[in-house]
Amino acid sequence: MLKRIRINTYQVGLVFERDKLVSVLKEGVYWLFGNKNVLIYNTNQAFYAPVELNILLENKDFAERIEVVEVADNEMVLQFVNANFKEVLTAGRYAFWKGVNLNTFTKVDLSKVYITEQIPMVLLENIKLRATVRRFTVLNFEKGLLYVNGLFVKELTAGTYYFWNNAISVDVKNVDIRQQQMEISGQELLTKDKAALRINFFVKYQVVDVMKALVDNKDFEKQLYVTMQLALRAFVGAFTLDELLVKKDAMATSILEESETKIKDLGLSVSDAGIRDIILPGDMKEIMNQVLVAEKKAQANSIMRREETATVRSMLNTAKLMEENEMLWKLKEMEYVEKIADRIGEITISGSGNIIGQLKEIFVK
Questions:
Q1: In sequence order, which residues have a C-beta less than 8 Å from that of residue 133 and are 6 or more positions away?
Q2: What's the pLDDT at 319?
């Protein structure tokens, strides 16, 4: 039997006789005799062996035209065609034609955690690789702690981090390192004299040691809350209500000084704290109002007594001077006469001339 076979450009023909590869045909026209079978392949595409690949590779001509890529169970291979990413090759054996396209391959060991291969970050976000990659992000105002198999490895700064997705557990714990405010509200407290009051307190804090905050301590925010709550309770219980109202401006400073060591052990720093409100119960508020009114009345009475005393003292001093100085007495007398005259529109005199004489004696004497 005679067969005419034409092999076009970018094609390869494999001639089989009794399932054995006997020759490889490149571009051209061929006549085949006998019971032979020809399989034609496009060299722009991957090669899929019709029989066991090892058998075909025994043919030297075929082996020189084929590039074989073997991928183990714990590996994957990234295929690049003419420097462009093409495909992810999972476990198995693959064959590619040489010469037409430039095939390059990057083998990846999926059994390790870190991505040490030179793979562009944009490629790690490709949908074909997404299932094989774990991605963690640490924002600009955060710090992260990397744990591998539950063990702390290192501290991470802001950025995006990628790890191979395998049986090894990987976790990144983020913590906000910005200044934050904590409200300690509605604290029912008793003063030294058993007066009940409610205080709203605030604390401004910031994480300065991520290791202490996340590794050495659990729920550092809850611990900070309890620390400040106990310090506030101890401070209030050490003073009477009157003393506490006097010292309320110094309360925050005293509480922070008392709690400084515990706050540092949490990996935190506190920049500010203060009392937002001091709320008294209804009956206590009424009593305080009564005390305030009584104090103000006492102050008013004291001021009035001081003014009266000053007035009497001034009059006494004036009287002494007038007693010692006759001219001063006359001047004071004339001053009063002048004031009386200013209030009199006219003077009507009846009787004898003795009245004029008396007036003359009053004004001239």
A1: 115, 124, 162, 163, 164, 165
A2: 72
